[in-house]
Write a structure and sequence with these properties.
Elements: H1 3-8, H2 16-43, H3 51-75, H4 85-111, H5 115-122, H6 124-136, H7 144-160, H8 173-197, H9 202-223, H10 233-259, H11 262-266, H12 271-283, H13 291-308
C-alpha cells in the first residue's frame, strides 16, 4: 500500500460499520441504565420526589466513571496532567454543563412530570444537536433527508412511549420546561465537546468532565440535604456498573463526534429510549414482545438510515473525461 493510500484512509471511528456498531453499543449501554437506575433507587430507598438523593446517586456514578477513566488514561500514558490553563477551563465548562447542569435540570424536571413525557421530551436532544450543528459547521447542514430521518426517529420515540401514561396534563416550566432545557444543555455541550476533543485526547477529556460533573452533583445533592440509604454489596455493584457504562459510552460517543458530523451521530440517540423500554421490560419482568417496540425500532432504524446514508458517486459524463 502506498503512502497516498495510507494518508487518505479514513479514521477508524469514521468508518460506516464502526459508526453503526459503536453508536449502537452506546445506546444499548445508556438504555440499560434505565432499569439499573430504577433498581438502584429501590435498593437505596430513594423516593420518587427525593431529588437531592438522586443527585448524590448520579454524582457518585459519574465521579467514579471519571476517576476510572483518568486512572486508565494515566496507565496508558495519556497526558492526564499535562494540561494548559485553557484546557483546564474547557474541561471545567464541559463538566459543569454536560454532566452537572444537564442532570440537575433533568432530575428536577423528572420530579415534576411523568416518565413518558420526560422520555419523549428528552429525545429533543437530537433535534437540538442537528440544528446547532447546522449553525456551527459548514459540512453538517440540515437537509430534507436529514429532517425526515429525525422525524422518523422521533416518531419511534413517541410510539415506544405510547400507552405509558397521560399526556394531557398542563406542561410546567419546572417539569417539562426543565427537561427541554436539559436536552438543550446536553446538545450544546456535546457540540462544545467536539471542539475540545480536536486538541485533547478523548479519554482524558471524558474522564475529567465526568469527574468534575460528578463532584458538582455530589455537592448540590448534599447541600440540598440529600442522603443515600445504606450501601450493600448489591447496590455497590450496581453503582459500579452504572459508572462503567458511563465511562465506556461517553468515551466512545466522544470519539464518534470527534471524527464524524454531529448530525450523523446524534440521530442514533433515538435508539436509547427504544433499548431502554426493551431492557426495562426484560429486567423488570414486564411484557417485552409488544408491537410498539418493533414499530418504534423500525422507525428509528429508518430515520438513522436516512440521516447516515451517503449519496452514491455521480456517474461520469463524457465531458468529465480528460481529453474530451
Amino acid at each position: 500500500m502506498d503512502q497516498s493510500t495510507l494518508h487518505h484512509s479514513p479514521p477508524f471511528f469514521s468508518k460506516p460499520a464502526v459508526v453503526l456498531l459503536s453508536a449502537t453499543l452506546c445506546c444499548v449501554l445508556w438504555g440499560s441504565s434505565y432499569p439499573a437506575i430504577k433498581n438502584g433507587y429501590e435498593m437505596l430507598n430513594i423516593a420518587a420526589q427525593d431529588v437531592p438523593a438522586k443527585l448524590i446517586f448520579a454524582g457518585y456514578r459519574f465521579f467514579l466513571a471519571g476517576l476510572c477513566l483518568v486512572v486508565l488514561a494515566a496507565t496508558l500514558g495519556r497526558p492526564v496532567l499535562r494540561l494548559s490553563k485553557h484546557q483546564c477551563f474547557q474541561l471545567t465548562v464541559l463538566g459543569v454543563t454536560q454532566t452537572g447542569l444537564q442532570y440537575v435540570f433533568f432530575y428536577i424536571g423528572l420530579a415534576y412530570t411523568s416518565g413518558v413525557r420526560a422520555s419523549i421530551l428528552n429525545a429533543t436532544t437530537t433535534f437540538f444537536s442537528v440544528i446547532l450543528a447546522h449553525l456551527v459547521y459548514q459540512d453538517d447542514r440540515l437537509s430534507a433527508r436529514k429532517s425526515a430521518g429525525c422525524l422518523l426517529g422521533f416518531g419511534g420515540v413517541l410510539i415506544v412511549n405510547s400507552g405509558g401514561g397521560t399526556l394531557g396534563a398542563t406542561p410546567t416550566l419546572q417539569g417539562e420546561g426543565f427537561i427541554v432545557i436539559a436536552a438543550f444543555v446536553l446538545s450544546a455541550a456535546s457540540i462544545y465537546g467536539k471542539h475540545v476533543s480536536k486538541h485533547m485526547d478523548a479519554m482524558v477529556m471524558t474522564g475529567w468532565q465526568l469527574g468534575i460533573g460528578g463532584l458538582l452533583l455530589l455537592a448540590g445533592g448534599y447541600a440540598a440535604g440529600g442522603n443515600l440509604g445504606a450501601m450493600t454489596p448489591a447496590s455497590g455493584a450496581l453503582l459500579l456498573y452504572l459508572a462503567m457504562l458511563s465511562a465506556v459510552a461517553f468515551t466512545v460517543w466522544s470519539l464518534l463526534l470527534k471524527h464524524n458530523p454531529v448530525g450523523r451521530i446524534s440521530v442514533y440517540a433515538f435508539l436509547v429510549p427504544v433499548f431502554g423500554a426493551v431492557l426495562s421490560a426484560l429486567f423488570l419482568e414486564e411484557t417485552i414482545l409488544e408491537w410498539k417496540n418493533l414499530a418504534a425500532l423500525i422507525l428509528v432504524c429508518g430515520g438513522i438510515f436516512l440521516v447516515t446514508r451517503t449519496r452514491p458517486p455521480r456517474a461520469l459524463d463524457r465531458s468529465d473525461i480528460p481529453g474530451r
